[in-house]
Design a protein that fits this description.
Length: 146
């Protein structure tokens, strides 16, 4: 299967179907030797973007402008492109872990358990009226505790 996204310039220029990525001339996972467009019969070219990356991106958004700006970036600035892709890969893999505790206030996963020592210290400092009693997590992002 093709390692890179294959692109039909003819379909891209002539398609009015803005909502369909496939209709705009992008194909992935084609047979290695397939360089002829199924739709118009013109020659396909390999883009710098991996089929795998394209898959990840279309899972995030089907917005044509988003995909095309990433394709443009992969051609123009491969280093920045790789950086962005690695962030998307982290995001898409962390999405699958639904058990990660999250801040109920800002949805950040950047949280820490409030240790017994900290609780003790806060009770000692603020007395029995401390708001931290009975709470066990603190959000590092927005400082919310619950
Ligand atoms: Zn075509
Ligand atoms: Zn928060």
């Amino acid at each position: 299967m093709s390692k890179f996204v294959r692109f039909c310039r003819n379909c891209n220029e002539n398609s009015n179907n803005e909502s369909s990525l496939r209709g705009k001339g992008y194909s992935i996972y084609l047979p290695e030797d397939k360089y002829i467009c199924e739709i118009c019969g013109e020659e396909l070219i390999d883009l710098s973007m991996l089929s795998l990356d394209y898959d990840i991106l279309t899972n995030i958004s089907n917005d044509l402008r988003f995909i095309e700006s990433m394709i443009e970036l992969s051609e123009r600035n491969p280093i920045e492109y790789q950086l962005k892709m690695s962030q998307f890969k982290i995001n898409s893999s962390s999405k699958q872990e639904n058990n990660t505790p999250k801040c109920p206030h800002c949805n950040s996963t950047n949280i820490k358990p409030i240790s017994g020592l900290n609780r003790g210290a806060s009770i000692a400092m603020w007395g029995i009226f401390s708001k931290k009693i009975n709470k066990s997590f603190e959000c590092i992002n927005c400082k919310y505790t619950w």
